Amino acid sequence: MSPVVKKAARVLVPLLFFAIVAWLLQGKLSELDTDKLVEAVRSISAARIALAASLTAAAYLVLASYDQLAIRHVASNVGRARALAIAFVSYAFNFNIGAIAGGLGFRYRLYSKTGVANDDIAAIAVFSIVTNWTGCLTVLGVALLVDPSALERGWGFAPLAGRSLGALSLSVVAAYVAACRFKRGTIAFRSWRYGLPDQRTGLMQVGLASCFWLLVSGVIYVLGPSGRELGYQTVLASFAIASLAGLIIRVPAGLGVIEAVFIQIMGGAIGLSSVLAMLLAYRAIFLLAPLVVAALVLAFLEWRGARRGAVAASS
Q1: For residue 94, what are the CA distances in angstroms to 122, 185, 191, 192, 296?
Q2: pTM for the whole structure
Q3: Could you give the CA distance from residue 70 to residue 164 in angstroms, rounded to a whole number?
Q4: Which residue, 284, 210, 243, 251, is CA-closest to 41?
Q5: Domain housing 194
Q6: Residues near 135 by Cβ (< 8 Å), separated by ≥ 6?
Q7: CB distance 200 to 25 below 8 Å
Q8: Rounded Cα–Cα distance for residues 209 and 257 (Å)
Q9: Within a domain: residue 117?
C-alpha cells in the first residue's frame, strides 16, 4: 500500500465511522421524548449515585496502579504517592480531552519534573496503554463467550459469530502473555517502542486492567433503570465494543460513540430515555467529577513544583 493511500485511509476511515455514528444518532434522537428523559434522570436514586461514585473511585485507583506497574517495569524511581497523583491527573484529562494532550501531555510535564527521562516517560505511557487494552479485550472476550446476545440485539449477529469474536479477543490476550513468556525484548510499531515484560508482569497487566473494565461497566450498570431487563454482561460487552469503536473515531470521551452503541444494543430493551439518562449520569460521575478533582490535584502539583524550584533557586 502506497504512502498516499495509507494517509488517505487514516483520514477517510474515521470520517466514515463518524458519519455512520452521526446517522445512527440522528435517527434515534429524533424519537426522543425530553420529558421522559428528565423523568429517567430523576429516577436515579441517591443510593445508586453513591454506589456509582464508590465504583468510580475504585476504578481510578486501579487505573493509577497501571503506572505503578509500569514504573517498576522500566526501573524508574518515582515515589508511590506522586506516581498515583500523576496517573490520576493523566487519566482524568485523557478521558475528557483525548490521549495526546491528556494521557501523554500531562505525563511528560509531571513526570519530567520528578527527573524521569523522556524515554522512560514514553515507556510508562505505552505500558499503561497496552495494559488497559489487554483488560478491554479480556472482559469483552469473556462477556461474549458467556452471553453473545449484545451483538445479536444490536446488529443481528448469530450467537456463533459473537462467541467467535469473544474467542478472537481472548486469543489476542493469550498471544500477548505468551510473547511475554517466550519472546521478551522490544517490539517496534511505527515510532513506538515497547519492551515486553516478563510473564508475571504481563498477567498482572491483564488482571489489573480487567478489574478496571469490570468496575467502570459496574458504574454504568448501577445507574441503569431498576426492575427492567439490563444484564451486567450486556453492559460490559457494550462498553468494550464502544471503546474499541472509539479507537477508530477518536472522539474525546467517546462522545456520541458510546451513546450510539448503547442505544443500538439496549434501546429496544430499556428504552431510549433510560439509555441516555444512564449515560448522562455516567458522564457526570465517571468523567466530569474526576476531572474537577484532577484539576485541583494538578494545581497542587504545579504549586508544589514551583515552590520547590523557588527554594532551590534561593539556596
Answers
A1: 15, 28, 21, 19, 16
A2: 0.87
A3: 32
A4: 284
A5: 47-300
A6: 205, 206, 208, 209, 210, 211, 212, 213
A7: no
A8: 21
A9: yes
Q: How far is 311 from 67, CA to CA, in rounded Å?
A: 29
- Report the candidate in 260, 232, 233 with the shortest Cα–Cα distance to residue 245: 260
Q: Which residues contact 83 (CB under 8 A, 6 or more apart)?
A: 64, 67, 68, 71
Cβ atoms within 10 A of the Cβ of 19, count?
11
Alpha carbon of 97 to those of 41, 94, 122, 253, 288: distances in Å?
25, 6, 19, 7, 11
Supply the pLDDT for residue 37.
83
Does residue 312 sit within a domain?
no
Residue 183 lies in a domain: yes
In sequence order, what are the beta bridge partners of 187? 194
List the single range of 19-33, 136-150, 265-279 with lowest mean pLDDT. 19-33
pLDDT at residue 26, as a whole number? 56
Contacts of 17 (CB under 8 A, 6+ apart): 245, 248, 249
308 is a domain residue? no
Q: Cell match 517495569: residue? A: 73
Percent of the chain with pLDDT over 90: 50
